[in-house]
Amino acid sequence: MREDIYAGLKNAVERGVPLEKAIQSFMSAGYREQEVREAARAFSSSQSVIQSPSKTQVAFTPVQMSQTDKPIPFTPIMPQQPSQSQQFQQPRPLNPVSFQVPPSKSGSNWLVFILGMILVFSLAAFVASLFFKQQIAQYISSLLG
Predict the structure, then answer these.
(1) What are the counts of helices (DSSP H) followed by strands (DSSP E) for the chain?
(2) Sheet holding 57-60, edge to edge
(3) Phi, psi of 48 (to 5 degrees)
């Protein structure tokens, strides 16, 4: 028996994957069916009742190899009703977030007005400097010397 297959089957079952699905996964990955079935038989004989992460008990019947070396299908025994943690929960609808504009203060209106005037004045000065750049350069050079 290959220990890596055994460990992989054990890991898959501990994560809640049915043993038969894990066996099929190993065989589709290229492992020989005989080796996979042998590891599954060893695993199921060492674990007669397996607890999944949701604490649901799942009992498996051991796999027996026939004389012609053909595997017998593996049949898991599942509980009748799923546990509370296995049932899907309905998503809760999201409440729309309402945004409210805080009441304006008279002081904030004046602040917006003053900042707007500064912006207009700055833009006017920039445009004027583009038109009168030679005259501004001459004035600054005469001040410096």
Answers:
(1) 5, 3
(2) 49-51, 57-60, 76-77
(3) -75, -35
What is the pTM for the complete model shown? 0.33
Q: Are residues 111 and 66 both part of a single domain?
A: no
Give the domain extent around 36.
Answer: 3-77
| Residue 102 identity (one-letter amino acid) | P
For 108, the 3-state DSSP assignment is helix
Q: Which amino acid would we find at residue 25? A: S
- Give the total residue count for the chain: 145
Q: Which token pair is 120?
A: 């207009």
Residue for token pair 């500064």:
118
Model confidence over 71-110: pLDDT tens digits? 556 666 655 555 555 555 666 666 666 666 666 666 678 8
Can you list the positions of beta strands (E) in 69-145? 76-77
Which residues, in sequence order, are bridge partners of residue 76? Answer: 60
Question: Are 58 and 44 in contact, with CB atoms under 8 Å apart?
Answer: no
Number of domains in the chain: 2
CB atoms within 10 A of CB 40: 25
Q: Which residues pair with 49 in a beta bridge?
A: 59
Residue 86 lies in a domain: no
Residue 131: DSSP 8-state: H
